[in-house]
Amino acid sequence: MRKSADKRRSRSPSRRWHEEAPLLAGERYRDLRVCGSSCFGEPHSRPPKYPVCVKNSRTCRPVKEGCAAARSRAAGLLGKASSPARVKKLKALLHRLDRLCAGL
After folding, report:
1. Which of 45, 96, 99, 100 is nearest to 74 (CA)?
2. Half-sphere exposure of residue 19: CA atoms within 13 angstroms, side-chain side
């Protein structure tokens, strides 16, 4: 028996992001070199963390799925953070991701 439309599970906003995300360090460094820091939540860490742009992108613009995935990861880690310094760093990261993904 099929569920009615209102009882179906909603799709994740970061659906299929794992197929488009720059997973390997080499892909991330390439995107950082070509697109700059606007494609990562933490561009200065090595390798860059929290990618929000599609790998090998020509437009170098954040995408909705990448923003949702990065925000979800950072918010999940914020709930588990114990030290005040880590909490402060994750809050700053969430603020940066909000600025990067504004208007999506």
Report:
1. 96
2. 2
Nearest to 29, CA basis, from 44, 48, 12, 42: 48
| Residues 37, 25: Cα–Cα separation, whole Å | 15
Contacts of residue 66, Cβ cutoff 8 Å, sequence gap at least 6: 14, 17, 20, 21, 51, 52, 53, 54
Residues 7-61: pLDDT tens digits? 677 788 888 888 999 999 999 999 999 999 999 999 999 999 999 999 988 899 9
Query: pTM above the 0.85 mark?
Result: no
What tokens appear for 18 in the block?
Answer: 């794992």
pLDDT tens string 74-93: 999 999 999 999 999 999 99
